[in-house]
C-alpha cells in the first residue's frame, strides 16, 4: 500500500493559536466540514451525493475517518450519461453494481494529498504508480450468459476445452468475476514520473490525447481523469476534483475483450484461460447479498506469473504440466512484475495487433506458414478464427508471449528502442523505427487497464520463435521430440525458477539469439522412434550383452508435479557390427525404460535427461556472424555447440536437400555393418529473407548424429608409431615424484598426515589418468584413461611419432625411466644425526648433495611434463578444405614466471595444417595420413560395473606429427642446459612449475 498522509497532528498539518481561538468550538479556516458536508456545500456534486446515499455511505462520509475521494461535478456526470461504455443514459438507469464501481473505484481508504500519493509505504519516495482502491471484487460479479463465454474451435481432442461445459444453453451461464484480486487505481503524478523517467509526452500518448502535454506543465491524472482541484481538506479526509467521471477500467484481458478492434487477439488469449470455482469469493458474496448464487467462478489465465505463482493446476485440480503458459496472467488485477517488486511500483504492458493486422498477417503475411500447416478450412477472413484455433497452444503461445511485457515503465514511447522481444533483441529496431514519431505511427490507440497498458498496433510483431532456426521444430509434425526438449525450460525463465527447470539448458533461448548464425539439425520423430540413440554408457561397460540404444516417443507427462519431460524412452539391444535393426532388436527390461511420467531425478529419468541434452547439443552449430554459407561452405568439418564434430559428407542439392552428415560415432563405425550417414529430408531457410530477421538454416534429419565414444587415450593407443608418446603420457608413479623431492616440503611441515595434499600435488604431473586422482574422479573402463586437465572444452592433440620422440631423447630429453635411473644412481642414503651430533657435518653434506640431485631431477620431470603438455592445444582444428591465416592458440604448457599459457602458431590451407612452435620456430606439418581422429573424453557416473550416464566430457581431434614441438627457444640446442647446475634447475622449475 502506498503511504497515507494522516490528518491534523499525525499528518504534520500545523496551525497557529490565538487568544480568541477556541479549540472546542472553532475549526481552522483551511479545514472544511466532512467530505459529505463539503460536497453538499459546493452545490454541484449532487450525483456523487446520491451515490453516497444510495450505497449507505452517508454516515461514513459524514463522520471522522480517513478517506480520499476523487469526485466529478454534475456537469461531468451529465456528459458521462451522454457517452459511456455501459450505455447508461441517466442516473436512474445505474444498477447497484455500477454505482459501487463508480463510487468505490474513485475512493482510497486512506487520506492523501496528491503530492504524497506517489510515495511508498516504507517511506520510499516517488515509487508508487498505483495502489489499492476502495473497490472490492464483490462490487460487481456479473452473470455471463452461455453464449458470451469463450469458445474454442480446436479439433484436437487432447486440448482441454475448459469453457465448453459452461457454454451450455441448458445451463444458461455462470456467475463469474474477471479476477478475484482487489482492483487497483493507477495515477500519473509528477514525482513518480520524474523518478522513473516517464515523460509528459509518454502519458499523453497513453491517454490518447490528441494535444501534447508540455514537459514544463505540471498535471496529475487518475487513470485518464485529470485533477482540476486538488487537496480539498475535510474533517475525514481529502477531496480531489477530476474533470470527468472516473469509470475504472478492467484488467488488460478485459479491456482487450471489450475493445471493438481486438476481438481476434482476445479470442486467442482466451484459449489460455479457464473458469475456476472460487470458494472464498462465493462465501464473501453470499454474506453481502441476498439471493447469491451457489457458485461463483473466477476467470484465470495459465501463466508463469499469477497471484498464486505458476498456474499449472486446472479447474478440475489436475496438474497440467504440458499446458503452455503465458508470461503473466493478463487478468490479474493486482499484477506484480516480479516477486521482488511491490505491485504498487509497476504494472504490465501488452502490444496487441488489431483485427485487421492479424487478419493480414495470417492470410498474407508471416503467419501464413502456420495456416498452411494447421488450418482445417480455406485460409480466408471468414474462417480465420476457426483456423487460428487449430494452431497448437504451444506455438500460438510464442506470438502472445512476445507481446507481453512485465514492466510498463520500460515500454513508454520515449524508451521504445530499449523494448526487447523474446530473443532480447530490439522489438522496434532503429533501422525500421528511426524516430519516436515513426514508432508512434505503429499504433491505433492505447487502452489503459487497472493492471497495465495495452498498445493497440496496426501491425504484428513476429516473435523470434517464428523467425529463428527453432521455428521448424515448433510447427513440423515430425519434430515433437525435439520440440519437447528445446522448449522444456521455456516457462522457467522468470525470477528464481531456474532450479525448477527440467533440463536447465534453455535451448530455445540460445537458438533465438538473432544476432548469431546457426545450423540446426532436427532428427525426426520417425528417426528417433525407429533408430533411436545409442547409449554411450552401455558401450563403456565393454559387455556386448549390455549394449543398447533408446527409442524416443513424444508422450504427455500426466498430471504429476516435478521435473518431467513429455518424451518416453524404450531401451533396445544394440549390436556394434550390425547397428539398429528395427523389428529384430530385442527390447530391454522395463527397468531401463523411462516413461514420460518418470521424474528426471530418478535413475532412468536422469539417463533420459542427459542423453536428450547430449543429442540436442550435437545438432546445434554456431557459425561466425559473417558466415553466410553455414554447412554449405567449402569445409568438411564443423563443430557443434559443445565441440562435438559434425562432418558433411555430401552437400545435397539446392539449399541442402539430401545432404549427408555424420557425427563422431557415425565416423567411428564406418567399415562395419552398422555404418550409415544421416540424411537431410527437409530444409528450412531461416536466414531472414527480405527483412533479414532470421538466424540460420534448419535441416530435418532421418536419424540423429552422435558423438564418438573413442577417448584420446584409445585414439593414441590405436595410432601407429605413437607408443613412445603414449608411454610418456601414461606415467602415474607417485613414488618417483616423492623420490625426486616433490613431497619434501609437505613432509617437513607435517601438514599433510593423510597424504591428501600430496595426492593433489602429484596428480599435476600425470596426463592420462583413471580412478580417483588428486581428489577428482576419472571414471572410465579398466583399459581406458582420460586426459586429466581436459575441462569440458574442445582441444587438439598433436602426437609425435616414435622417431620424433627418439630424436628429442637424443637431444637430452629425459624419460621417466631415465629420471628414475638418475635418482637411483646419484642419491646417497640418508644419514641419521647422532644424539651427540658428532656426524652433523656428514649429515649436512649428504643432504646438500641429495638436494642438488633432487633439484636436477625436478627439472627433468618439469621439462618432460611441460614438453608433453605443449602438445595439447585449446580449440579443435581439422585438416580441412579451408584457408586461414596464421593464428596463435594456447596450449596446456604454462610459463608460470610470466603467467601465460604458451602458444602454438597454426596455419591452415586446403588439405594441410602447419604448426610453428616457440622453441625452434620450425614449421611442422600434420601427417595427413593420420589426422582428424575425433575423440571424446567422457567421464562416467561410476568407475566399475555398468555406468549409467556421462557426467562430463571434453571433445578433441588427434593429429600425428613427424617432429615434436618445443616450447622454449633456450632449449633448442639441447635439454640438459636446463639442469646444468642446481641453480639453473631451480630457476627452470620455478618458471615452468606445474600448477594444475
Strand order of the largest sheet: 2-1-9-8-7-6-3
What oligomeric state best describes the polypeptide chains here? single chain
Average the pLDDT over all residues and give the rounded result.
93
Q: Count every helix, treating DSSP H or I runs of 4 or more residues as helices.
A: 33
Class inferred from helices and paired strands: alpha+beta
Q: From the alpha carbons, calculate the radius of gyration and give it in angstroms.
A: 38 Å
Helix content: 25-40%
Overall geometry: elongated
Distance between the termini: 56 Å
**Largest beta-sheet characterization:** 7 strands, mixed
Number of distinct beta strands: 37
What low-confidence regions span 5 or more consecutive residues with pLDDT below 50?
A: 1-26
What is the beta-strand fraction?
15-25%
Task: Characterise this structure.
The chain is 27% helix and 20% strand. With 996 residues, it is an alpha+beta fold. The strands form nine sheets. It has a seven-stranded mixed beta sheet with strand order 2-1-9-8-7-6-3. Strands 20-16-25-24-23-22-21 form a seven-stranded mixed beta sheet. A four-stranded mixed beta sheet has the order 4-5-11-10. The longest helix has 30 residues, at 840-869. The relative contact order is 0.06. Mean pLDDT is 93; it is low at 1-26.
Provide keyphrases for this structure:
single chain; 7-stranded mixed β-sheet; 996 residues; elongated; 33 helices; alpha+beta
SSE topology:
Layout: H1 8-11, H2 35-41, H3 46-54, H4 58-62, E1 67-71, H5 74-82, H6 96-104, E2 107-108, E3 130-132, E4 143-145, E5 173-177, E6 184-188, H7 190-195, H8 200-206, E7 221-222, E8 225-234, E9 237-242, H9 252-258, H10 263-270, E10 273-277, H11 279-288, E11 297-301, E12 348-353, H12 355-363, H13 368-374, H14 384-388, H15 393-402, E13 404-405, H16 436-440, E14 443-448, E15 452-457, H17 464-467, H18 471-475, H19 480-486, H20 507-511, E16 517-523, H21 525-530, E17 533-534, H22 536-540, E18 548-554, E19 567-573, H23 603-618, E20 620-623, E21 637-639, E22 645-650, E23 660-663, H24 664-668, E24 678-686, E25 696-701, H25 712-718, H26 723-729, H27 734-739, H28 744-749, H29 756-763, E26 768-769, E27 771-773, E28 776-778, E29 786-787, E30 794-800, H30 802-810, H31 816-826, H32 840-869, E31 872-874, E32 884-895, E33 900-909, E34 912-916, E35 923-925, E36 933-940, E37 950-961, H33 982-991
Helix pairs in contact: 3-6, 9-10, 31-32, 32-33
